[in-house]
Amino acid sequence: MFDKNFEIEYINKKISKCEKCSLHLSRNTTVPGEGNINSPIVFVGEGPGADEDATGHPFVGKAGQFLEKMLVNWSKLKKSDVYITNIVKCRPPKNRVPTTEEIKLCTPFLESQLIILKPKIIVALGSTSLKYFGINKKITAARGHFFDWKGNIKIFATFHPSYLIRNQSMEKNSPTWYASFDMKAIGWMYKAFNSGKTADEIVKVINERMKASGGV
Ligand code: SF4
């Protein structure tokens, strides 16, 4: 019988021993991802930062705390309601953007995680994640919109919280002001999936709501 928890733990053990790219040389620990393995929504960020590298848990530093605050305030969700992971599982030195080679070597792990988790919607946090999912748009243009990936998965784009903590103004048309619409949409999606709505129905309603509210 397929045991999701066992399968995810198996991948995470493989990640913990991985030395495929040079990021293993400077890491303290790998950060495979964690959260609700049965969530219809999986968040994918860029890579671990210093706090994540020290603890092995994703999004526990300042950016993660800001993400949690946004989830609680606007999505009415806890971080543990969704699964959260990153494109690369080891911290790039000085939090630089991971290289194309590092992404290429690491993302088979992400692909395996996504095959096991089977999310209906992936929230791409920031431009590195967006680019990985094949969306060649700026995050400012892509956010608040859905994109198809591999036929049956929808990608929903929003800002990376590390960008938002440097731009916390809630002034109209500011990044955090737009992110508040994205987070409300994510909260609604989560509840809609749990009440049996399909991804296509959800996308249609969110698109209408976003347009009507000025969120896009
Ligand atoms: S970043 Fe990914 S590919 Fe590179 S060592 Fe870490 S787990 Fe392996």
From TrEMBL:
Top EC class, one word: hydrolase
Catalytic reaction(s) noted: Hydrolyzes single-stranded DNA or mismatched double-stranded DNA and polynucleotides, releasing free uracil
Stored InterPro entries: UDG_Type-4/5, Ura-DNA_glyco_family4, Uracil-DNA_glycosylase-like, Uracil-DNA_glycosylase-like_sf
UniProt family annotation: Belongs to the uracil-DNA glycosylase (UDG) superfamily. Type 4 (UDGa) family.
Domain of life according to the entry: Bacteria
Keywords associated with the record: 4Fe-4S, DNA damage, DNA repair, Hydrolase, Iron, Iron-sulfur, Metal-binding
Pfam families: UDG
Biological process terms in GO annotation: DNA repair
Species: Tepiditoga spiralis
Coiled coil: none
NCBIfam families tied to this protein: UDG_fam4
Domain called Uracil-DNA glycosylase-like: residue spans: 32-184
Gene Ontology molecular function: any one: 4 iron, 4 sulfur cluster binding
PANTHER family to which the protein is assigned, alphabetical: TYPE-4 URACIL-DNA GLYCOSYLASE (PTHR33693:SF1), TYPE-5 URACIL-DNA GLYCOSYLASE (PTHR33693)
Protein name listed in UniProt: Type-4 uracil-DNA glycosylase
Protein EC: 3.2.2.27
